[in-house]
Specification:
There is one protein chain. By secondary structure, this protein is α/β, with parallel strands linked by helices. The chain has seven helices and eight strands, in the order E-E-E-H-E-H-E-H-E-H-E-H-E-H-H. An eight-stranded parallel β-sheet has the order 1-2-3-4-5-6-7-8, sandwiched between helices. It is globular.
Length: 217
């Protein structure tokens, strides 16, 4: 592994990139790839939640599935929040049962997310992907044990860049999500923001990946 990408929605084409591909439960697990599988909060309305959770439980046992998610809470979408919680909490329990990290989508629901985490004891790491919150939110999430993942928004958001610069080195990840931007570009930007060189970012991201996901990285 050279460039570790914690969250993307299609297989990586760069031979120097090791990525966790985010899938929905109904998607097939690719061969020779690492992935996460989860029920996204946007998609919990109009489905059989019990069937989706049963399928998720079966899929997440696979060794190639190194994390549960993306799942989470989103007050900016039209899905009833109570229904989102009904989908989110079983995924939290599944991650804890399997000892696999949880990759989280969160929009305008950080207090609720922190409450849910405080309600769980001895849970595996929770990673907020595509973080775009403010400095106060970032500080609270770090205080409560979260990891933050940053993506394309770093390129133009000065405040977000300042947040990345202040996050402890063992508590952040980098990602491309659905962007066409390469993970190399995001690493380069992160190095500039943290006033270091890309190789140092590569080394630290490798350490972070090994710490959370084990030797599969």
């Amino acid at each position: 592994m050279k460039y570790f990408n914690i969250h993307r929605h299609s297989p990586a084409n760069d031979l120097d990139e090791t990525a966790i591909t985010s899938l929905f439960p109904e998607q097939e697990i690719p061969e020779n790839a690492l992935c996460s599988i989860g029920i996204h909060p946007w998609h919990v309305d109009g489905i059989s939640l019990n069937d989706a959770l049963a399928l998720l439980n079966r899929k997440c046992i696979c060794p190639a599935v190194v994390a549960v998610g993306e799942c989470g809470l989103d007050r900016a979408c039209g899905v009833p929040f109570d229904l989102q919680l009904l989908a989110f909490r079983p995924q939290v329990e599944l991650a804890a049962m399997l000892g696999k990290p949880l990759i989280i989508h969160c929009v305008r629901a950080y207090p609720e997310l922190v409450f849910e985490k405080k309600s769980c004891r001895n849970s595996p790491p929770w990673i907020v992907h595509g973080f775009r919150g403010n400095p106060e939110t970032a500080s609270q999430l770090i205080k409560h044990g979260f990891h933050l993942s940053f993506g394309e928004a770093l390129m133009n958001d000065v405040r977000l860049g300042e947040i990345l610069a202040s996050v402890p080195e063992d508590r952040y990840f980098l990602e491309t999500d659905e962007s066409n931007m390469s993970i190399r570009e995001i690493y380069g930007k992160a190095a500039s923001l943290r006033n270091t060189d890309p190789e140092s970012i590569i080394v630290q991201q490798r350490k972070n990946a090994l710490s959370l996901f084990g030797n599969g990285k």
